[in-house]
Amino acid sequence: MTPLVTLESKAVPLLRDNIDTDAIIPSREMRSVSKDGLADGLFAGWRYTAIGGRDIDPTFVLNQPESKGAEILLGGSNFGCGSSREHAVWALAEYGFRVVIAPSFSPIFQGNCIRNGIAPIVLPRDTVETIAAGFADGTPVMIDMPSCEVRMGLAVFRFSMEDEARTMLIEGADAIELTLRHRTEIESFFARDAAVRPWIYLAD
Fold this sequence. Notes:
Elements: E1 6-9, E2 11-14, H1 21-24, H2 44-47, E3 72-75, H3 87-95, E4 99-102, H4 107-115, E5 119-122, H5 125-132, E6 141-144, E7 149-152, E8 155-158, H6 163-171, H7 175-180, H8 183-196
Parallel strand pairs: 2-3, 3-4, 4-5
Antiparallel strand pairs: 1-6, 6-7, 7-8
């Protein structure tokens, strides 16, 4: 994964509650098990004027010129609810989003974000709305993962995130890589355990 340490970007507001994974990437847009080729289907039901079509709806926020190149998405409460499909996060990532800020997330979606290099940042609703207000005039938003801060102008908003999740994002490491950092301790444990319970390690 690409490390996420600091990021400065516009923040696109999509302040709807209960945006589920089928809205993020409709099932009809999932034509393979690959992570590639999903960006066109991101929010397809809202981005395009007809189901299955590709005629742009100019009123949808992602289709507005101000949204071009944005890497931060603002959402409502319970973002990513519904099914556990990881394609939703893959679509967001391929489109270019590195951060989603919302008052709350579905736990499964939140975990999928972290495992795929997207920071799911929880901030109070009024704070998310304050950040969203800066979209019209192009006010940039700064994400500082080491200090757990979101900055916009002179305003600083603190967030919390579990240490392991933050480490995975900052270092671009997955859970297996973090576990392998303790290889010496793990091997020492198995050596001690084998001496005490040798029957556990008998070959078939």
